[in-house]
Amino acid sequence: MSASLIVTSGSATHVGSRRTLNEDSLLASAPVFLVADGMGGHEAGERASAAALAEFERYSGRESLVLDDVRAAVSSARFAVDDISVSTTGRAGTTLSGVVLASVDGTGYWLVLNIGDSRTYRLSDGELEQISVDHSVVQELVESGELTAAEAATDHRRNIITRAIGGGSTGEADYWMFPADLGDRILICSDGLCSELSDGHIRDVLSLETDPQSAANVLVADAVSAGGRDNVTAVIVDAISVASHPGRPVETDVPDIADTRPREAAGGVRP
């Protein structure tokens, strides 16, 4: 039986213009595509992001995953990151965002997960949509109407996250699951990319650069050129073959739009 969702991908990362250490980590090996942005200083962040992704690496090579696989990996990642905090002077933590390939009754699905303020987007039919919802103080203020999206982009609290893996947080990850369409392009990135580039710029690059590796290279280079105030990472995943059963209802316990409240402070402020 052929896979229900076949993809091609590209990825790039850069330390940025102001940092000496790249605390971002990425995993781009089907069926798992993730970005983790570490925090904690003194190499704790670098170790935390790498440790979190290591818990997903064992799934590389499988055709698809189910939600229980992903939840188990997230749980293991928490233990791994907490162990780093015990062995260091800092409070190691990391964000985690991305997509895994899933299959329901032979239909190809995207299963998106997120915790923190790294992001997952989808470009479909020329429209760019942010799938994940930031776990951050400014996002809460936007949702409450106290800030506009434009104000949030420059607010001094924009680096304070409210959920993480480690960093003193016990907040849960959010999950979304939706059918994949042929031609879908998924972008997963650390906040070092989306804080430097507008959604319009991101959409234009994703639309013009047809090769996923070229698109990842251009986005990261553009973010560094725009300021590069943080580490910058991008993973791009393109759906090149999708099996589907039109009109066939699919039941799943993962909602299309996840409830992202209540939130609690993660005890983490990005440096």
Which short descriptors sum up this protein?
alpha+beta, Phosphatase 2c, domain 1, seven-stranded antiparallel β-sheet, about 25% helix
Write down the overall mean pLDDT: 87
Question: Are there runs of 5+ residues with pLDDT below 50, and where?
Answer: 246-271
Q: Based on Cα principal axes, name the global outline.
A: globular
Cα Rg: 17 Å
Structural domain tally: 1
How many distinct helices? Answer: 7
CATH topology: Phosphatase 2c, domain 1
- Structural class designation: alpha+beta
The level of helicity is: 25-40%
CATH H-level homologous superfamily name = PPM-type phosphatase domain
What's the multimeric state? Answer: single chain
Gross CATH architecture: 4-Layer Sandwich
Between the first and last Cα atoms, what is the distance in angstroms? 48 Å
Largest sheet: 7 strands, antiparallel
Walk me through the topology.
Layout: E1 5-14, E2 24-29, E3 32-39, H1 44-57, H2 67-87, E4 93-94, E5 96-104, E6 107-115, E7 119-124, E8 127-130, H3 137-143, H4 149-152, E9 160-161, E10 165-166, E11 174-179, E12 185-189, H5 191-194, H6 199-208, H7 212-225, E13 232-242, E14 268-269
Antiparallel strand pairs: 1-13, 2-3, 3-4, 3-5, 4-10, 5-6, 6-11, 7-8, 7-12, 9-14, 12-13
Helix pairs in contact: 1-2, 6-7
Question: Any overview of this molecule?
Answer:
27% of the residues lie in helices and 30% in strands. The protein is of the alpha+beta class and 271 residues long. It has one domain: Phosphatase 2c, domain 1 (4-Layer Sandwich). The strands form three sheets. Strands 2, 3, 4, 5, 6, 10 and 11 form a seven-stranded antiparallel β-sheet that branches. Strands 1-13-12-7-8 form a five-stranded antiparallel β-sheet. A two-stranded antiparallel sheet has the order 9-14. The longest helix is centred in the N-terminal third of the chain and has 21 residues, at 67-87. It starts with a strand and ends with a strand. Residues 246-271 have low confidence and may be disordered.
